[in-house]
Amino acid sequence: MYPVLRLVWQLYKHRKSPALPVTGLHVSQHYCLPWDIDLWMELNNGRTLTLYDLGRIPLAGRVGLIKVLRRKRWGLTIAGASVRYRRRIRMFERIEMRSRLVCWDEKFLYLEQSMWTPDGQCANHILYRAAVTGKGGIVPPATVEAELGHDAAQPPHPDWVRAWIEADATRPWPPMQDPAQE
Fold first, then answer.
1. Could you tell me the domains of the chain?
2. Which PANTHER family does its entry note (predicted)?
3. How many CB atoms neighbour CB 99 within 10 A?
């Protein structure tokens, strides 16, 4: 089940947090609850992706994106992700989540998020490709930035982000074609 109450709590908790610049860092605190775990008594990998919403959506609020999405009747979608899992998160363990927009191009926004254990270890890290969508399809990030009142230059793409974009572009689509159809 989607953690609606936890999301509402995060939005409420951060409703008066200071506004952030477009590439600002949003930090939030969370717990791994019993319904978040898998058979090995640790945070389930799929649930990790869902819990990242608890940081990404309040980030969108703090940079002003949610207001723009509502006003323009736009949506927000995830168009790709790459995750690294490095440390286990156990039931009832407290985690710190860090969320920020890294960069953008003509079509997509690139966000990163990470979860940190109480001893300062990074448990996992994700890079997202996201898009703002409207009736006509994808809304160019430059248009979104203008609606946010942001007029600074695009930050450069870090090498690791650029490498992921290039590698992902080589993946076949649709995937796993039937060899008899090739």
1. 4-13+20-150 (3.10.129.10)
2. PROTEIN THEM6, PTHR12475
3. 26
- Which pTM does this prediction carry? 0.92
pLDDT of residue 13: 93
Q: Could you give the C-alpha distances from 170 to 53, 161, 163, 173, 175, in angstroms and in order?
A: 28, 15, 11, 9, 11
How long a stretch of residues is the chain? Answer: 182
What was the pLDDT predicted at 182?
60
Other beta carbons within 10 Å of 127: 20
Alpha-carbon distance 138 to 77, whole Å?
Answer: 9
Q: How far is CA 58 from CA 64, 95, 98, 123, 182, in A?
A: 10, 16, 11, 21, 45
Beta strands in the chain (DSSP E): 26-31, 75-85, 94-104, 109-116, 122-134, 137-139
Low-confidence ranges of the chain (pLDDT < 50): none
Running DSSP on this structure, what letter comes out for residue 11? H
Question: Do 32 and 93 meet the contact criterion of CB atoms below 8 Å apart?
Answer: yes
3-state secondary structure of 6: helix
